[in-house]
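Write out the bound-state structure for 3,4-dihydroxyphenylalanine.
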Amino acid sequence: MTLAELENAKAQSLREIAAATDAAAVEALRVKYIGRNGSIPALIKAMKDVPKEERPAFGKAVQAWRAEAEGALAAKSSEAKCSPKTVETDLTLPGRWWKLGVKHPLSRIIEETAEIFARLGFTVADGPELENRFNNFTALNTPEHHPSQDRTDTFWFGDDCLLRTQTSPVQIRTMMANKPPIRVICPGRTFRRDTTDATHSANFHQIEGLYVDTKSVSLADLKSVLAYFAREMMGDGVTVRFRPHFFPFTEPSVEVDFTCHVCKGKGCGVCKQSGWIEVAGAGMVDPRVFGHVGYDAEKVSGYAFGFGAERIAMIKYGIPDIRWLYENDVRFLNQLG
Ligand code: DAH
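---
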């Protein structure tokens, strides 16, 4: 190749580079001219065939070509990267995947409970977390000397204002605002001055239920409704048993156990070999409570119950520590999705 031919070839290469419009074309030209088997390295290898006296000038021209070609390629390649023309939509690529969150187990328990009771005609009632003494205690037939009213058990703000210790005050609010028949469940946050450990938390959730009617309501009605709930929530083969208990606002009062859903009542580690797991308090609404809300206790009767939402979540999902429900660790929460 003569010097003149070389200048021609160089001009041609620079024109090609200038005309390249995308990154692939730039890369092809890089391979063609300065790649290992490209034109410029081939010229350098062929240098020994150039007559000795022409060699320095020829060598200089080749180096200059190389430098200019490299510069032009580099400029083109960064231009090609930023050029919108090169951003093509490849419709064959898989779609982008956004990870969906999951509902918190407590929300799921509360929503599922509301759905189950909705099938029995119960609606959802709500009340404030900041309550007064009358709704949280007095109207629920709980005397002032009762330990739950103590400052060491309840978060008080002054004499008449407290963080509700139970969802039962929503019963009072609902009855004062409505006439029977009443069928409500009241899920919500409750507070007690408990030290937090694996089974206690100063802030937890309850799901209250209340049915009041002018026709006679019995303990058998309560039991059948709770048995239906047990089956729907925990699965076939789970039923309920009542144990006598005391609550100021119900008479008679019971504690409610579900058949252990793991061993179906045979006895296992989860139910401490008893076959039963305690889940709620319940009973027939005490006539004094009806008196406090202005109902005629001779004319109405009803039942009430209160579940611990955490308790249901823990037994249903096998969660050993209540604190896991509040730590918001996605490694835990995702497992329940
Ligand atoms: N409020 C009770 C508690 O926190 C639970 C309870 C028991 C609610 C009996 C009721 C009931 O409505 O009838 O321990």
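---
The first strand starts at residue 123 and ends at 124.
The chain has a mean pLDDT of 92.
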